[in-house]
Structure formats: C-alpha cells, structure tokens
C-alpha cells in the first residue's frame, strides 16, 4: 500500500509540473494577430471556405492517379522476380505498360490529363476557336463564335 501512495504522489507532482509549464507558457507568450491565425494560402487572401467542393472533373484526374499508383504497386514485386522469370516477365511487363500508355494517350487526347479544362487539350482547342473566330471575322462580318 505504501508503494501505491508514493506512485500517486509522483503522478500528482508530474501533473502539477506539466500544468505549471503550460500556465507559464500561456502567461508569457505573445498574442497572435488575427492575420496569423487565418489559414495560409501562399500569402494570398482566402477566397473560399475550407470545406468547398471540387469540380467533378477533378475526379477523373484522381482516377488517373490511382491507375498509375496501381501500376507502381504491380511493378515493385515484378522487380523482385524478373531475374528468376527471365524474358517472359519482361515481355509481360512491356505489354502491361503498353496498355497503360494507350490509356494515357486516350486520356490526353480527351483532355482529361489535368484539371477541369484539361491541360493537354486546352491549347489545341483554344487555337481552333481563335482560328474559327478569325475566319468568321475575315469577311467583314463581326460574328463571335
């Protein structure tokens, strides 16, 4: 029973020290300005709520990321057994990579490779719109496409 009492005294002393350190820290700290408490957005003012929703087109980018992530999951074990399996394992991996490359080319052509507008297809689409606009305005008719 005496050992239990000394453990309680030790726990009380430790709790008092911890609370004392927190109390002294709270008493001597500098007060924060409201700007430093706000969320940090690379120095810019926050324009939307932190729980805002993402555009649905970002989910295709997420699925592409998961596809390539799964590619890496399958490539790590393959590296361990490629020397034992020989050339057939290399051929199978290149076939797997060819299927993934075809998916990348398809997504790239469809414009699903980055963001709501698609980074890859946007310049080509913009160039086509400018060309069509210039063609319609070349004959003197002011018509926006």
Automatic annotation (TrEMBL):
The keyword S-adenosyl-L-methionine does not apply. Its EC number is 7.1.1.-. It is found in: Cell membrane; Membrane. Keywords: Membrane, NAD, Quinone, Transmembrane, Transmembrane helix, Transport. GO terms for cellular component: NADH dehydrogenase complex; plasma membrane. Gene3D superfamilies: NADH:ubiquinone/plastoquinone oxidoreductase, chain 3 (1.20.58.1610). Its main location: membrane. Residues 114-145 are annotated as: Disordered. GO terms for molecular function: NADH dehydrogenase (ubiquinone) activity; quinone binding. NDH-1 shuttles electrons from NADH, via FMN and iron-sulfur (Fe-S) centers, to quinones in the respiratory chain. This is NADH-quinone oxidoreductase subunit.
């Amino acid at each position: 029973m005496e050992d239990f009492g000394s453990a309680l005294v030790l726990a009380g002393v430790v709790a008092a020290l911890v609370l004392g350190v927190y109390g002294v820290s709270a008493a001597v700290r500098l007060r924060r300005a409201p700007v430093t408490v706000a969320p940090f957005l690379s120095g810019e003012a926050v324009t939307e709520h932190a729980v805002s929703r993402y555009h649905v087109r970002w989910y295709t980018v997420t699925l592409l990321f998961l596809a390539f992530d799964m590619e890496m999951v399958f490539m790590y074990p393959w590296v361990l057994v490629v020397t034992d399996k020989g050339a057939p394992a290399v051929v199978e991996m290149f076939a797997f990579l060819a299927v993934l490359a075809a998916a990348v080319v398809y997504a790239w052509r469809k414009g699903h490779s980055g963001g709501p507008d698609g980074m890859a297809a946007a310049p080509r689409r913009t160039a086509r719109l400018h060309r069509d606009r210039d063609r319609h305005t070349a004959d003197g008719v002011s018509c926006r496409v």
